[in-house]
Amino acid sequence: MKLGRELLSAQAIQQRVRELAEQVSKDYARIARPLILLSVLKGSVCFATDLSRYVTVPVNFDYVAVSSYGSGTESSGVVQLLKDLTMEVTGRDVLMVEDIIDTGLTTSFLFEHVQRHRPSSLKLCVLLNKEERRVKPVPISYKGFDIPNHFVVGYGLDYDELYRNLSAVHVLEPD
Ligand code: IMP
Fold first, then answer.
1. CA 32 to centroid of chain Cα atoms
2. Please, which pLDDT band fits residue 78 given cuts at 50, 70 and 90?
3. Is there a domain that residue 51 lies in?
4. Which atom of ligand 1 is nearest to the CA of 98?
5. Which of 110, 111, 109, 114 is nearest to 92 (CA)?
6. Ligand 1, atom 20: nearest CA belongs to which residue?
7. Does residue 56 form part of some domain?
8. What is the pLDDT of residues 24-71, one digit of tens each?
9. Shortest CA distance to 40 belongs to which of 164, 103, 126?
């Protein structure tokens, strides 16, 4: 597999992240304690970090990790928690930050997991959405872009741990 055409430029991504941060800042303007940005490792780290720089309300960071695609481009459908929350989220406002929602299996698993800790609120912020591939519905509150059904890399997203550092999003193509 090789790097293909650019789907979203670095500039378009930054512009959209700024818009999402503005909306988040408005919606959480009145919270009593910092908003917990719950980033899903490793893919959403770039997005969560950039988002946090544009958000004007106080934030805390936490991270969870789940098993994902391995080295292929197809989901196994089996989700496993590899790293749990380290913060106490009970009674707190939590914004789960995801890089991409494909089948929805990973996100719905995590959403239910966090919900069991009874946060005061739990919302989902996702950069990329592949609606066409959805198996399990997920409640998205903030969405960056709807994209077609391609395997994409860059801006945190990888193929076999490569390309996460690109500032644009590209389509992955066969050799
Ligand atoms: P889902 O459980 O099928 O929604 O998949 C979610 C996870 O699969 C994401 O958090 C990514 O880690 C990975 N994933 C899904 N689509 C892509 C893609 O196009 N490029 C890179 N990773 C992807």
1. 25
2. confident
3. yes
4. 10
5. 114
6. 152
7. yes
8. 999 999 999 999 999 999 999 999 999 999 999 999 999 999 986 544
9. 126
